[in-house]
């Protein structure tokens, strides 16, 4: 039997994205980059998503019908999803009524549940692109209390959904570890296809080419710009970032904070004013993903104060691709991405974050070296090309199991215990040395 990786097979892929794709943050970037790299490899991904969001050139995007409650929907956890997700199921059936997809690639737990129903109807494999705990995200977003009965119920639902797909793709090794050991997931194959950076898009732009942006933002000259790019929310650490900025600005007059993202922009402008640092902080609002690299190139250093320990933190990889020395709260994912080249602070501690930023400011003579090492680390370990190859191999794996080997996964039950594949005729698919397998 020839190597599956060498076969020129091209798949029609249903990508279920129960969110308002595309928006300029987080999981949307992962969906975009995965769909783009798979398309480059000759596959045909079709993205089924909610009504909100903007289209992206070159991608097939299908949206559910518009509803009167559309304008009330906010990103993240929402009861409106109880209406939107059945429509996502119906829209999928209509879109693929002439020809079923070869594989279903579902994002988020709602997508995995809808995808499971479709996979049983069509008899095609379900791949779950896992980006964090469902209940963990609800708690982080303030949508759910950890002590509530609803949390206990939804955690059981989450565990149930985790066990539905033929394979799970995670965005970090930490997430794969949580699935196996915290949630006791029995899915026969869990592969980490890490978040990545688009190195053709994300690189440092020369300062002379950024003068127009600098002028438009009215950024001060001869001050170090400390940048953040991402969602503005408590679980992202935005409150702690502003408190740390207040402490640092009280000690130094050579820093200015550039905080880019949304929502809650006015809320955090008011907080900056209340802390007395309105003139030391620039909040830009939404920055288009296409322009992110230019805006980040204005910075001397970057900061990522995300609090969640279950979600990925893709902004770190974009910082790394730009070559920005980076401060982050100390989480498993941050350690996984930044390694020894990051500057870490104690979670939930504004003073520690302020001290970590100041420590990195004091190492100005090392910035060029730190930035170069972070970019090298990103290029070597976190490219979308590499993740695309892994995803493609998972498709090969599950489709061969579905089409020709009813008990294909029987030989792989030892994965959950040993973390490696047996050395048999299928070893060419995903090697025993592949660190991305759990």
Biggest β-sheet description: 7 strands, parallel
Spell out the helices and strands N to C.
EHEEHEHEHHEHEHEHEHEHEHEHEHHHH
The number of E-state strands comes to 13
Instruction: Pick out the low-confidence regions.
Output: 1-6, 403-438
Secondary structure tally, helices: 16
Radius of gyration: 22 Å
Q: In whole angstroms, how far apart are the ends?
A: 25 Å
Strand content: 5-15%
Secondary-structure-derived class: alpha/beta
**Spatial shape:** globular
Provide the spatial order of strands within the biggest beta sheet. Answer: 3-2-1-4-5-6-7
The portion of residues assigned to helices is 40-55%
Q: Averaging pLDDT over every residue, what do you get?
A: 87
Report on the structure:
With 438 residues, the chain is an alpha/beta fold. 40% of the residues lie in helices and 13% in strands. It contains 16 helices and 13 strands. The strands form two sheets. Strands 3-2-1-4-5-6-7 form a seven-stranded parallel β-sheet, sandwiched between helices. A six-stranded parallel β-sheet has the order 10-9-8-11-12-13, sandwiched between helices. Helix 8 packs across helix 13 (350-361) and helix 11 (315-322) crosses helix 14.
Keywords:
438 residues, alpha/beta, seven-stranded parallel beta sheet, 13 strands
Helix and strand topology:
Blueprint lengths: L11 E6 L8 H15 L3 E6 L10 E4 L17 H15 L7 E5 H15 L3 E5 L3 H7 L8 H14 L4 E4 L2 H9 L8 E3 L18 H7 L6 E6 L8 H14 L3 E6 L4 H10 L6 E3 L8 H5 L4 E4 L10 H8 L3 E4 L2 H7 L4 E3 L4 H12 L5 H15 L2 H20 L11 H4 L20
Parallel strand pairs: 1-2, 1-4, 2-3, 4-5, 5-6, 6-7, 8-9, 8-11, 9-10, 11-12, 12-13
Helix pairs in contact: 1-15, 2-3, 8-13, 11-14
